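W.,

You were right to be curious about this one. When I first looked at the sequence I had no strong expectations either way, so I just let the prediction run and decided to look at it fresh. Below is the sequence, 341 residues in total, followed by the output.
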Amino acid sequence: MKYKDAGVDIDAGNEIVRRIRSLARSTFTPGVLSDIGSFGGLFRLDRDRYQDPVLVSSADGVGTKLKVAFMTGRHDTVGADLVNHCVNDILVQGAEPLFFLDYLATGRLSPVVAEQVVAGVARACRENGCALIGGETAEMPGFYADGEYNIAGFIVGIVEKSKLIDGRSVVPGDVLIGLPSTGLHTNGYSLARRVFFEAAGWKVDTFVRELNAMVGDVLLAPHRSYLPLIKPFFDRQSMKGLAHVTGGGITDNLPRVLPDGCAAEIDRQAWTVPPIFRVLQQRGDITDAEMFRTFNMGIGLVIVCASREADRIINTLSRAGEPNAIRIGFVVSGDRTVTYL
């Protein structure tokens, strides 16, 4: 017997490496010292730029949004979702990304599909100035269903210790500024799929009038990277805290950047909730509390700043291309909770 008889095709694995090598090389920055195919990725830190550098790392996945990719046959966006999610996770502590690694596991390797997924990873890495220096492609027959795969990402970034954003200086009276999301991003898809595909009986190519689009296209809207907007503020140190609104919504994520003695009050009328969330709530008969704890509700990032800085930050964001940054609430005295008004 051969390994291929058991479902593992080494030649297919080598073909994937060949296809993605040029994609990865297109993301390389001056710090990269190794090539794709090495046992470990090498990256040289530019110590001249930092007096007291702190490395910030994170790992995440795309979740069941992948099921929508399988249903549509589109695999060129989930890789970008993965990178942007990880970039935002370290961004909120003031870190710029240095390098990224990915892990792709499937039941049977398809070089074409793998290339599409990694192309999305590489594209987002280039856009975020992050080098894709390595990863792993695993063929696991009998573990994943035919045509399905899972992908995870690992990111390392850097920040000067004196410029860490950790929320320690947040006090009652500070302002909360919300930046709009581009849809569900990468959270809440288990509930969204149940509502749309089971309860409503829709297909990915069902055109929904309220959304003015097909369901699959709306659900595959890319997870947004906030790095281009937030990076210019790092040197100004005008942001006291940043919260990436992921699983748990504003309800669970905003308290993560609030110190003891602080809570948040959110004005739900401050912004217009995008149609995708209104349709989900109506079709699924979902309570307000469940919606705000499951989905981002149109706010993908929350900035905490002093009241005197709020207008300047909003105006700067508008000039940078984000006219919809808006005050959504305040920090108040309390025990790290969120109240919706």
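Here's what jumped out at me. The mean pLDDT is 94. And, maybe more interesting for your project: The chain has two domains: 3-163, 175-340.

Coffee later to discuss?

I.
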